[in-house]
Write a structure and sequence with these properties.
- The mean pLDDT is about 95.
- The protein is flat and about 45 Å long.
- With about 140 residues, the chain is an alpha+beta fold.
- It has helices at about 25, 40-55, 125-140, and strands at about 10-15, 65-75, 85-95, 100-110, 115-125.
- Strands 1-3-4-5-2 form a five-stranded antiparallel beta sheet.
- A hairpin with a 2-residue loop joins strand 3 and strand 4.
- The protein has three helices and five strands.
């Protein structure tokens, strides 16, 4: 990770909510979700908050050799967002401690704030991580 990646850095990311991100669509294989409101699912929103952090830090990594994985999320989903509406996600790096990075993340749709919270990611060596994963898959298969 580049030494200029430090607390205080800020990133913005915009993402338009696709229809597949709504509760009935995302959980299409769960019958009781078919009757749920056609709004952005919290599970998908969490992913967008994570991706906003990853997108912001990519320029500071030796990508794709260095990558990062989410290890903690603490978000409040404050308001519904329909498909087709854009999210504006703002990220601030709160702390960089070795390979661990903590972020403040906030999101708005066109009308209101829809999410706020913190997120933590760890920088990984992709080859080393993939080797460990392959070993785990091999052990599970036996």
């Amino acid at each position: 990770m580049n030494s200029s990646f430090q607390a205080g850095l800020r990133f913005d990311w915009r993402y338009t909510v696709p229809a597949r991100a709504t509760v009935p669509q995302l959980y299409h294989d769960t019958s009781f979700c078919h009757d749920m409101p056609d709004v952005l699912a919290t599970g998908y929103l969490v992913g967008m908050m994570e991706l906003a952090c990853l997108n912001g830090m990519r320029d500071y990594l030796d990508w794709p050799r260095e990558q990062s994985l989410g290890t903690m999320v603490n978000f409040q989903h404050l308001a519904p967002t329909p498909p087709g509406m854009a999210l504006h996600i703002q990220v601030e790096v709160l702390e960089v401690d070795g390979r661990r990075v903590r972020f403040q993340v906030d999101a708005w749709d066109a009308l209101e704030k829809v999410c706020t919270g913190t997120h933590e990611r760890h920088v990984i060596d992709a080859a080393r991580f993939n080797d460990r994963l392959a070993q785990k898959i091999a052990r599970a298969a036996t």
